Every structure is written in C-alpha cells, then in structure tokens.
Amino acid sequence: MSSLRTVLMLIAGVGLLLSVGCGGGSSSGGSVVVGFAQGGSESSWREAETKSIQDAAKDAGYDLRYANAEGRPDQQVSQVRGFIAQGVDVIVVAPIEKTGWEDVLNEAKDAGIPVVLVDRGIDTQDESLYATLIASDFVEEGRMAAQWLVDNKPGGARIVELSGTPGADPAIDRKKGFAEIIDEHDGFTIVESQSALFEQAEGKNVMNALLLRADLEFDVVYAHNDDMALGAIEAIKGAGLDPGEDIIVISIDGVKAAFESMVAGDLSATVECNPLLGPKVMEVIGQLMDDEDVPHRIISEDKLYEASQAAEALPTREY
Ligand code: AHR
Questions:
Q1: Does residue 175 have its Cβ closer than 6 Å to ligand 1?
Q2: Residue in 119, 134, 162 to alter for ligand 1 test, most ligand atoms within 8 A of Cβ
Q3: Is 90 exceeded by the pLDDT of residue 12?
Q4: pTM reported for the whole predicted model
C-alpha cells in the first residue's frame, strides 16, 4: 500500500515539474494564457481588430483574457496591471496613447511577462520594455493620402483635417506624413485641424460646425480614419453639398463602408490599414513561448484605393 502511494506521488511530482518546465502553459490547464488590453471600440476598424485577435487566439487554442478600456488611458494601464497580477503568460496591448507606459511595462518586465504591442506604438527610451510592435506605418499612410491629393488636385487645395484621438500614435503620425508631402507642393494648405476622436458621430458633429463657419473655406477633407470621413460626408450632404464634387474627402483604414461610399461617388480615396492582426499576433506569441527571437518591429503593408477601384475590390474586402 505504502509503495503504491510512493509511486503515485512520484508520478504526480513528475507531472508538476513538466507543467512548470513548459513555461507558458502552467496557468490555465496547459494552454497559454494571453491578456489582451484593447483600447476601445471607437471605430469599425477597431471592432475588426478585436474580432481578429479573439478568433485567432481561439484557433491557436490559447486562453484569451480580454479587457477593453473604452478610450480611458488610465483604465488601460490598470487593466495591464491586472493581467500582471493574474500571472498571464503574455500581454498584448493596443495602446490608446503613446505616453504613460514606462512604469507598468517595467512591472511586466520584472514579472517576466513579455508584452506584444499591436496596431499602435508607444514613446519609450527603453526598447526592451516590449517584445515587438505589430502595426502599420502610419507616417507612410499619411504620405500616401497626401500624394494622392497632390496628384489628383494639382492646382492646390484648402484642406480641413479631421484628426484622431489626441496623443494616439496614428493621429500623430498620419498628420506628420500628410504634412510632409503637402509642404513640398505649392498651394496646399491645412486651413483647419480638429479632432473627431476617430468616431463617425463626432466626424459628423465637427463637420457640421465647420460648415457653418463663415470665416472658413475649404475644398478637401482629410480624415485620419474612414469613420470620421463617413460622418463628415453625412454632414456635407446634409448641407446640400456634393462630396466628391464640391468637397473631396479622403481617409485611411479601408473598411467595407468606405468602399461602399467610394462606389456611391462620395469618398474619393482611402488608404488601407490592415486590422486583421490576430494570426500574426498568435504566431509571435508561439515564438515567444518557445523562446525564439522575434523582430522588434513587424510592419503591415498598406496600399491606397481610389474610387475607380472600389467596385472591383468591394467583394474581396474582409473587414
Ligand atoms: O490605431 C488604428 C486606428 O485606430 C484606426 O485607423 C482607427 O480607425 C482606429 O480607431
């Protein structure tokens, strides 16, 4: 009897050692536990990103713990802290703002939990605070939008810019890339720049107010995402103007509704920004769990679509 008990205890001990030795995998019945700190639900792009990460985690057999800060940076930092306290194997963050990350990421580093940044970067002097950033090149997206404009409106333009959430990586970099190109060409001026928080309803509100201003004349709207552009188009139509004719609207993201708007002749161009990052995120997590090296920056390739390409591309759009 006592020798049987000894054998059973030995088997249990070996099992425990194996599960601890396998790194990621100890905390949830054997599967890798991933904490995903999403920043919000402000746009259809972000909904597509969330779904892509959730679906890919399921396909990979990972245990995904999901938190959404709904646009509140402090809340997002607390949620990351919560994942550290839970002892997850890896943390995925889509940062709302670029700043404010050093303390909590140092805490993750001290706890030995790798951090994967998705879709937006952060400001830090210490690159070792995260394993990788998987995202588009937002400066390049801004450049592509501006290049389309200077090519298609060579006489110049008075531009209203609808910018994204203040402090967010894409709002900062899409502004920068766009300005870089128009500054090289005479006659292109940003006459007004206002944030509409990446939201369609806010895009409409801001545009309604701008259209009422007697001191402001413009013929182009450059929106940092499609949702704000679609809201602006509603306002432009509501004011009895023709988007695409009286006011040219260009934006970034490439969501399905933007393609539909281009087919309808309202939106003139959009730069694709791929939100379907889930499969790449899971691939990287697998590599991290196997202690493999991963590139510190993984860039999603984007391209611009203009209205003439929209009808053909629409059926193939996945988000
Ligand atoms: O970080 C990506 C940006 O955030 C998308 O362009 C925008 O739609 C979203 O809200």
A1: no
A2: 119
A3: no
A4: 0.91
User: Two tokens at 162?
Assistant: 């609808």
Ligand 1 contact, 188 CB (< 6 A): no
In one letter, which amino acid is 77?
V
Q: How far is the CA of 68 from the centre of ligand 1 (A)?
A: 15
Domain 138-274+305-316 in the same topology as domain 30-134+275-300: yes
The β-bridge partners of 192 are 160
pLDDT digits (tens, 9 = 90+) for 51-85: 999 999 999 999 999 999 999 999 999 999 999 99
Predicted local confidence at residue 15, as pLDDT: 37
Query: Which atom belonging to ligand 1 lies closest to the Cα atom of 273?
Result: 6
Give the residue-averaged pLDDT of 249-265: 98
The CATH code of domain 30-134+275-300 reads: 3.40.50.2300
Domain 138-274+305-316 class? alpha beta
- Domains of the chain, residue spans: 30-134+275-300, 138-274+305-316
